[in-house]
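FW: tagging you since you asked about this chain on Friday. Here's the raw sequence from the shared folder, copied in full. Didn't touch anything.
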Amino acid sequence: MPLPPALAAKLAKRGLIASKNKQSSEPTKKNDYKGLSTCPNKSNIFHECTVWCKSHWLGVLTPDPRYVRNMQKLLAKYPLLNNWTEVFDKGLGRYYYWNMENDIVSWLPPKHPRAVLTKSAAKLREKYINEQRDKRLKEREELSKKDRAEKDGDRGHDRDSDEDDRGHRSKYSERRDRDRDRDRDDKRGKRDRDREERHRRDRDKRKREEQLDPMDPSTYSDVPQGTWSDGLETNKMRADNTASGVLFQQRPYPAPGAVLAANREKEDKERRK
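HL: got it, structure written out here
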């Protein structure tokens, strides 16, 4: 339903809706790929002239006389062809050479050995901007397709979730049983390894205790096996009363070879058993 004319006029005056007269009076803005004539950066295809360029770059209206003399000498040595002409660039204050037939430009005469013939910056900038626009449109289309595919997948998943619920439960239960069995086997193996390690430590401990120590008086006498402090003068309560001094000073010690031989003989007996 269209709005009343009075209401539409008030809304258009406040800027809430666009006026038909205003839309018809404003022409369609075209992209200016050439850039500002007085901007020295317009030859860069990645530069787009803005209001800042218009207010700051005043340009060079007339070329430098010394530069003109050098250019004339260069043209006398490398003359232009019929379809080429020189054009003054107000942004840089230099002449460039333009082929009017194929729209090719160069900063040096085309016959110069170091001349680089290329398309104009406006053509290259237009091509670059169009490629970027096409790239953005393509990315948006891919994102929209991806979103639609995800939505369709979600709907399909919701539709098939009831049917696949039993299958998921059975797979989960099987995986849980496998994990439980593997954990049980790991625990059993760890217990067995710990038990073997305890047995090995106890066997080594008993073996060390059964060996004779040549520095221990209990090895060659009836004195019971004691600690390192037994027999010291500060521990006379547990020392031998028959000795007048410290035990290791009064008791004769056997030869180390005799003790080692006794140990070897004891090991041989155990091995025969």
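FW: The mean pLDDT is 77.
HL: agreed, and The chain has seven helices and four strands.
FW: great, closing this out.
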